[in-house]
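The instructor's notes for this session suggest beginning with a concrete chain rather than abstract definitions. Hand out the sequence below and ask the class to guess, before any prediction is shown, which regions might be ordered.
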Amino acid sequence: MDKTIRQTAVAGTFYPADPAELQQMIDGFIENTPPPADDAPIPRAIIAPHAGYIYSGPVAASAYARIIPAHNKFTRVVLLGPSHRIPFSGLAASSATQFATPLGLIPLDTEEIQSLVSLPQVEIRDDAHLYEHSLEVHLPFLQTVLDEFTLIPLVVGDTDAEEVAQVLERFIDDEHTLIVISSDLSHYLDYHTAQQRDKATSQAIEQLKPEAIGYEDACGRNPVKGLLSLAKQLHLKAEIIDLRNSGDTAGPHDQVVGYGAYMIH
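After discussion, reveal the predicted structure:
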């Protein structure tokens, strides 16, 4: 097996492994998303969920639809998501040169990744990427809404907002770089409790209050809080695009997972 290519881990489970079926599914999600207004700002960063597509795909699509007007502007994506399998401190980069999806190969910005590894909180950890879905599920969406781009994938472990913000600060002013933060919201609450919890988390995001997001409010809280901390420093705006949960999309109401889509501009 070619170790320079990070192979898919959740194709066939979280999303279709067949390229045509996958593309049709994503296109359907985006077509069912209300188009942004003609004067809508282009995001500098988005926050979008990472569950199985039948559950969170429609919410993720609402964020990715905002990127389509800039399909040829963004030539690099910095993608951060939480670690679900490997406990570690800091941020994990990949030694791969390409990430695979059923829609093709995505080249990594290996030069910039080597530069990031000079930061004390960033290290190469392929074990953190091997089976992680929080980044992978975003890649087919990115391949659909963008033209050619390079990728900087970072799995986020136990770290604080300032360490994440220090990484994102390198890219936030580059108009050709899109920052994508992968996070679901509350987990396994009943429908109405989840709605209340997720509404409070959404208000914290819109008000750029990372300190108001607790351990059980969002699985990607560490990268989310890093982005919000940086956005607050730079006087950027956060805007909610969509807020639903698995009870709204494809699941029962007794235990739901919350999904939100947001943009920073």
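Then share the key points. The first strand starts at residue 5 and ends at 6. The chain has a mean pLDDT of 96.
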